[in-house]
Write a structure and sequence with these properties.
With about 350 residues, this protein is of the alpha/beta class. The chain has 14 helices and eleven strands. It has an eight-stranded parallel barrel, surrounded by five helices. A hairpin with a 2-residue loop joins β3 and β4. α7 runs parallel beside α9. About 5% of the residues have low confidence. It binds (3S,4R)-3-hydroxy-2-oxopiperidin-4-yl beta-D-xylopyranoside (XIL). (3S,4R)-3-hydroxy-2-oxopiperidin-4-yl beta-D-xylopyranoside binds next to loops.
């Protein structure tokens, strides 16, 4: 009897508190208008739609909301690169990488890891040590095991090696610590893929590069590497083209290049998509309606070209940034550049509609 009374009082108090909460909590108020699901790229796409992000920008509510509303995956623009994580042999800085992974977890998003071995991101302390090949590999092996192991089950895919080939298919030699150290750099990279696989057997392992659809020589080198990896037992699940192209880049070449990449049978990632519209790097450039429409059409045709590859090989399309107010291209290309799907006020651009309309 005493128990029944207690339960009754508890239930009464609970339901009263619910009424109270619903009336007073603004978070429970339904949004006035929901955008139809097929009007949102992350929902319409039958593959992940990613964006490169930085931890700092996630502090902005508009940034975070736009990101989680429209995208299903993130890539760290730089905070998971070696020079940002690896401060010394046994000295790792996880602060920003952890925060990005946590944001993705909290918001039902995936994380693509970028990148384990990139010639541009070996830390200075490592380069200055001038390791012989055995010590070099020993340290890099530990690095890969530590990073991939830490995010086992949390990061679904990794760019293990990034930009190791030139467009003509030769191996990159200038400023490349791996090339300087190993007689057979490709075999070293193969072992890096193996270390990553051992640290997280579920993670999909990618090779990532730029100009892949434009440069037949580079695609040939990637194909040969994939064949060699297969015959020598090194794992490789996918290849990525960064796709930093221009509105003027020939779309048939992009389409045929993607189809050719897909002949490898590997997963295909458009990994760093941004399309420059101020192609002449003009100080007087105006992003007029006509320019915006041309731009939107470029996005549409690139997404259509990706949709044309076999469904089972579509891994993701990731844009290199979220909004035009923060893009590497304003430093590296021209201050008047507007390459992404949102403007600097987080408003959807025509390029967003282009991307959306390119989806099946
Ligand atoms: C760029 C970032 O966008 C910059 O912020 C950073 O300073 C340098 O790297 N190819 C890649 C990316 O694989 O990692 C590069 O990102 C862009 C080119």
């Amino acid at each position: 009897m005493y128990l029944k009374q207690t339960v009754f009082i508890f239930l009464l108090a609970f339901s009263l508190s619910c009424v109270e909460t619903q009336e007073n909590n603004p978070l429970l108020v339904e949004p006035e208008e929901e955008t139809a699901v097929d009007q949102v790229i992350r929902h319409k796409a039958a593959f992940n739609v990613g964006a490169a992000v930085t931890r700092n920008e996630l502090n902005s509510a508009s940034y975070a909301n736009t990101l989680k509303t429209h995208y299903s995956q993130i890539t760290a623009e730089y905070e998971m690169k070696m020079a940002h994580i690896w401060n010394g042999v046994n000295n790792y800085n996880w602060t920003n990488a952890d925060a990005l992974v946590k944001f993705a977890e909290d918001n039902d998003m995936e994380v693509h890891g970028h990148t384990l071995v990139w010639y541009k991101s070996f830390p200075n302390w490592f380069k200055n040590a001038n390791y012989d090949s055995a010590s070099f590999e020993g340290h890099v092996k530990t690095y890969i095991e530590t990073v991939v192991g830490r995010y086992k089950g949390k990061i679904i895919s990794w760019d293990v090696a990034n930009e190791i080939f030139l467009d003509n298919g030769g191996l990159r030699s200038t400023d490349c610590p791996v090339f300087k150290t190993f007689k057979d750099p490709v075999a070293f990279y193969g072992r890096c893929y193996r270390y990553a696989r051992e640290a997280d057997p579920e993670a999909k392992l990618f090779y990532n590069d730029y100009n892949v659809v434009l440069a037949g020589g580079k695609r040939g080198a990637m194909r040969s590497m994939a064949t060699r990896f297969k015959s020598e037992g090194y794992p490789l699940d996918g290849i990525g083209d960064q796709m930093h192209y221009m509105e003027t880049t020939n779309r048939n070449t992009i389409k045929n290049g993607l189809a050719d990449m897909a002949l490898t049978g590997l997963l295909i990632h458009i990994s760093e998509l941004d399309i420059r519209i101020n192609t002449g790097q003009s100080d007087n450039f105006v992003y007029s309606t006509t320019e915006q429409q041309k731009h939107a059409n470029a996005y549409k045709e690139i997404v259509e070209a990706y949709e044309a590859i076999p469904q089972s090989q579509k891994f993701a399309i990731s844009t290199w940034g979220l909004h035009d107010g923060s893009t590497w291209l304003t430093d590296w290309w021209h201050p008047k550049e507007y390459p992404l799907l949102f403007d600097d006020k987080f408003e959807k651009k025509l390029t967003y509609e282009g991307f959306l309309n390119g989806l099946k």
